[in-house]
Amino acid sequence: MTGHRLYVTVSIGITIFPDDGADAETLLKNADNAMYRAKAEGRNTYQLSTHELSRSTQERMTLESGLHLAMEREEFEVWYQPQVDVETNAIIGMEALLRWRHPDRGIIAPADFISVAEERGYIVLIGDWVLRQACRQAREVRDKGLPDFRVAVNLSARQFREASLVTSVLAALKESDLPPNCLELEITESVAMENVALTLQLLRDLRAIGVTIAIDDFGTGHSSLSYLRQFPIDALKIDRAFVEDLPDRFEDAAIVKAVIALAAGLNLRVVAEGVETKPQLDFLREQGCREVQGYYFSYPVRGEELLRLLEQGLAVTS
Ligand code: C2E
Ligand code: MG
Ligand code: MG
User: Fold this and answer.
1) Among the atoms of ligand 1, which is closest to the Cα of residue 155?
2) Tens of pLDDT along the chain (318 residues)?
3) Ion ligand 2: residue ranges with CB closer than 5 A
4) Hey, which of 84, 101, 154 would you mutate to test ligand 1's pocket, going by the most ligand atoms within 8 Å of its Cβ?
5) CA 55, 61, 64, 69 torsion-angle sign
6) What atom in ligand 1 is closest to the CA of residue 98?
7) What is the whole-number distance in angstroms between the Cα of residue 33 and the centre of ligand 2?
8) What are all long-range contacts of 274-282, with beta carbons under 8 Å and residues at least 24 apart?
9) Which numbered atom of ligand 1 lies nearest the CA of 79?
10) 217 with 237: CB under 8 angstroms?
11) Contact 108, 99 (CB under 8 A)
12) Less Cβ crowding at N or C end of the chain, within 10 Å?
C-alpha cells in the first residue's frame, strides 16, 4: 500500500514479577488490566500494574466475570422508554434500553457495563439478543392495533463493525414478523465517523432492508456536517445535554433551534431526548420538534408496563 499514512498507537500494560504476582496467570491478568487502564487513559500510553488493585480495577474485574455469565444466566432485561408525538401526546414508538439485573447489585445501568462488554466482545451477542427482544416486543405492541409503532435499538461500535449485522437484523425481523420500517437503528456520530466508507456501505445495506437509521446524541461526537449529506439516515436525536437547560440557556436554545431547522431542511425527523419539564417540552414543540422522549412522560419501563401505558394513555410521571 503506498501513499497512505497509517497512524498506529500502542497501549501497554506492565506487570513485574514477583511484586505483582507469583505465577504466569496472575501476571498476565494484571498486565491485561493495566493495559485496559492504559486504553481508558486515552490510549497510546502505558500503565503499571500495582499489586494493590485500585477499587475501580477490582470493580471492573467483578463486572467482567459477571458479564461473562450474565447472558446464560438470563440476567439481562430490555426496558423501553416511550417516544411521544408532542402534538397528540400519543406514544408513537419506544427506545429499547438494556439493563443488567445483577444477582448481588440489583439493576445496573448500561453506562456501567457496556464499555466492558464492548472491549471484551460480549456486546455482539448481547446486542443481537436486545435486537430480537425489541423486535418481538414491538410486534406485540403492533398487534394491539398500532401498525405504525416503531422500536429504536442502539447499536454499539463493535456491532456496527461486525460483518453479521445485516444478517442479524434480518433474522430479528423475520423471527418477530415485524415490518422493517418499524425498526429504527441508532448509531452515534463517533461510530458513524470511525470508518466513513464502511458506514456508508452498511447504512445503504440496512436501508435496503427497509429499516430506518437515527443518529444518536447528535452534536456531541466528532462530527462533520458533510456526513449528513452523504449518509442515508432518517432521524437526528438531540442529546439530553442540549435539552437540559432549555429554554433559559440561550446557547442551548440556539443550538436546538438550529438542529431542528437543519433536520427539517434535510428532510429528517428529529427526536429530542431527556425531556423532563413542561417548559422544555413547550420550547421544543414551538420550535417544531415533533418527537420527544424523557422522564416528563415516562422513565424507561419493562415491556409489560409499556403495554399498560399504551392501554391507559400516557400518564405524565412528574
Ligand atoms: P442513549 O441511547 O442516548 O439513551 C438515552 C439515555 O437517557 C437512557 O439512559 C435513558 O434512560 C436516559 N434518559 C431518558 N430520558 C431521560 C431524562 O428525561 N432524564 C435523564 N436524566 N435521562 C434520561 P440509559 O438507559 O442508562 O442508557 C445509557 C446509554 O447506554 C444509551 O444512551 C445508549 O448509548 C447505551 N445503551 C442502552 N441500551 C443499549 C443497548 O442495548 N446496546 C447498546 N450498544 N447501547 C445501549
Ligand atoms: Mg439511543
Ligand atoms: Mg442519546
Assistant:
1) 44
2) 578 888 888 999 999 888 888 899 989 988 998 898 888 888 888 888 875 556 666 677 778 888 888 988 999 999 999 999 999 999 999 999 999 999 888 999 999 999 889 988 899 999 999 999 999 999 999 999 898 999 999 999 999 988 899 999 999 999 999 999 999 999 999 899 888 999 999 999 999 999 999 999 998 887 778 888 889 999 999 999 999 999 999 999 999 999 999 999 999 999 999 999 999 999 999 999 999 999 999 999 999 999 999 988 765 543
3) 154, 186, 216
4) 154
5) negative
6) 38
7) 29
8) 274/239, 274/240, 274/241, 274/243, 274/244, 275/243, 276/244, 276/318, 277/318, 279/246, 279/247, 280/243, 280/246, 280/247, 281/86, 282/247
9) 25
10) yes
11) yes
12) N
> Nearest ligand, CA of residue 152?
2
3-state SS assignment for residue 175: helix
- Please enumerate in sequence order all residues whose Cβ is within 8 A of that of 291, keeping only pairs 6 or more positions apart, or say none: 83, 84, 85, 86, 92, 93, 269, 270, 271, 272
93 membership: H or E segment, kind and range = strand 91-102
Distance CA 67, CA 45 (A): 27
CA-300 nearest atom, ligand 1 = 11
Interatomic CA distance for residues 232 and 236, integer angstroms: 12
Can you tell me which residue has the cell 440489583? 106
